[in-house]
Amino acid sequence: MATESEPGRRHRRCTQDALDVPRVTETRGDGDTPRRGSLCDRHCAAINNVHGDLGCHQHHPRGHAAVSPQLCCQQHSEEVCESCVVKTTLTAENVVEANKLSNNYKFGFKKWKSHVTARPWEDRSEIVKELYSDLNVIRGSGGSTVTCGNVFYLLLFGWWLSLLYVLMAAVMFVTVVGVPYGRLCWDLAGYFLWPFGKVIQKVEIPKSHRKLDACKADAGESSALLGGPTPCRWDPWCWVNEGHWQRAGTAVWLCLGYPVLVLAHGLVCVTSWLLVFLIPVAKLSARTAARVLLLPPEQVHIRRLKMTEVPLDAEVILCCYHAVNPYYYKYAVDGINVFAVNLLPLVLVTLVLGYVDSHNRLTSSPVKFTLALVSIMPLSYYIGMAIASISAQSNFAVGAVVNATFGSITELTFYITALIKGSRESNRCYAEIVKSALTGTLVGCVLFVPGLCMVIGGIFHQEQRFNSRSAGVSSALLFLSVGGVFAPTLFSKVYGKLVCGECHNVTQNPLGHYLCHNCHFDLMENNGTLYYSHVQPLVYTVSLLLPAAYLIGLFFTLKTHSHIYDIHISDCHMPGHHHSAVVHWSRWRALLILLLSTLCMSACADLATEHISPILTNSTISQYFIGVTVLAMVPELPEIVNGIQFALQNNLSLSIEIGNCIAVQVCMLQIPILVLFTIFYPTNFTLVFSDLHVYASMFSVVLMNYIFMDGKCDYFQGTVLVMVYFILLAVYFFAPSPSGC
Prior knowledge:
There is one protein chain. The protein has two domains: 132-205 and 247-327, no CATH class; 331-505 and 514-571 and 579-734, A middle domain of Talin 1, CATH 1.20.1420.30. α11 packs across α12 (365-392), α14 (409-425) runs antiparallel to α15 (429-460) and α16 packs antiparallel against α18 (525-560). The strands form six sheets. It has a three-stranded mixed β-sheet with strand order 1-13-2, with helices on both faces. Strands 4-3-5 form a three-stranded antiparallel β-sheet, with helices on one face. Strands 6-7 form a two-stranded antiparallel ribbon. The chain has 25 helices and 14 strands. By secondary structure, it is mainly alpha-helical. It has helices spanning 39-54, 69-75, 78-83, 95-104, 126-131, 148-174, 179-193, 207-218, 248-274, 279-290, 338-356, 365-392, 396-406, 409-425, 429-460, 468-485, 487-495, 525-560, 587-610, 613-618, 623-633, 637-648, 652-680, 691-707, 715-734, and strands at residues 57-59, 88-91, 198-202, 300-304, 315-320, 332-333, 336-337, 464-465, 497-499, 502-505, 514-517, 520-522, 567-571, 712-713. β6 (332-333) and β7 (336-337) form a beta hairpin. Residues 1-35 are annotated as: Disordered.
């Protein structure tokens, strides 16, 4: 860690991603001014030692490599050499994953936590391996099976599923020819009442012994305990050599019993899958319907593991110990998190209800608005993963274009559709909602996102450090962008004319005090001379300068001063590991998903703006509050989850950069794009914000810069940011709605 021995000594610190970084090597220099013969020598030697100790093949995305002290100091100035001590060494399974990790540290690129390639099975922890098991592995004594999760299964599924099997057993006994299946249902009724600690096996019966075993059964010898076949007196068709598919009992089973049980298991499977943490129950039901219920009944044997030893020659079909596994939030299907998979059908439901039920006969407008807003979350996830996948498999230029084009597509889609609807209805409330959402995104990403990450990360890490220089670059861009965005507002305050709706003389004296309501600065007096001649040119000028400043920031951080984010990606070749990249989504597949998700995002945004009118009209809550909370933060939930995951693994730099990058893009990209859009499609959107938006944004940026000044933080500082954010939300909650809405 960095230490302080005298005033003026600079901190040197490293950040790490604990999941992919088994080791972070930190070096530090001494003295106020670094000397080429001392600090640089130790610095370059430390870099080479890191490379040598890892024993890995190093990937240097920005062209950095292990160098000698002389070459290091020839290539860089003293200031650069001093800052180059900050190194971040990351390990990746393959080149594609290395590119993804490298992109996480690039300014302007979307930060993505999940893997874009399939991780080697041997690199996964035992907890993760258990998530993908097929419930056919017999383990040693794992303790008592009486747990809260198993009892929850009994109350939710076990009792009625067992009762259904008892009824099916009675039906099959009545048919006579289905008696073997009746016995199977009776045994499965006891199994599904409490399946934990029991095993279902498939026992193969040699063909040469089938007739002999059946005759012994007729003589009164039962082989049920020994695992033999069902007695012949219960199944007159058991002598058929062609198999059980030609038995009369099998036909009766497939017509009467199997369809009912498949429907029941399907219901259990879908319900438990949607609950995520009950996915073991979903696997149990799916494997039962697809495998157990289609086997010959004499080959299915249920045993309690504590009572008898499992034969080595028997195939284990099912063996379940726990119904609930809290780690299933990590479960992924083809690289997609299970929550995003479960929310995808909600998108289809939203689109069908929104465009088919246009007259609100099935559902109301608030319900459709809520569904549309929730549907934006999984679509944001798919867009983020598609961008990360394309960037990791492409060169820098393609990755930069994709991130710049689609990085803010979620927010811009909603804003543009809202402005179009407000323009068609001549309702300026939509423009005010968009301004509130822009301010809410800025304030939330500056205060709430890093504050929440600091609090959650601080619970597990007493003190977290981050790259203060990279945070300083983002802070400088935020100051510039906030000043530019609110410059037209400040200009209007100085030169605009204050107009009030109602004024009352309090003292009954013409020279006394007046109490006025609904006051605002009018920019359209004298046929809008002030606005069109002064404010509007200023808005266009700012909208050109802000993207230019963003490009300069990109060039500064990614080209001339890339050492600020200097990282080294190591691809460690362990014995027995295969490092060929098996990507979840190819570039063309990722591009297709990106375009489809963007199209669905546009449709959901259109539905949200279409059905927000009753909420704005009938709600007693301030429209400011709706804009800065629901409309601003819901689309950012996937980014918030990524930030929390980085903070939990002691990589607070990326958590902070997530919020800073979104805030910078709001001011330097999204707002200029909206201004450009109003040129081609006239709307009520003007770059003049209310006083509340100005004060909240400026105060948030100043506070964030103060907190990030020393490059270290704890949960207390995070609590301060979160509490200030909630105080601002309280102000918005009690604030009156915008005038004219």
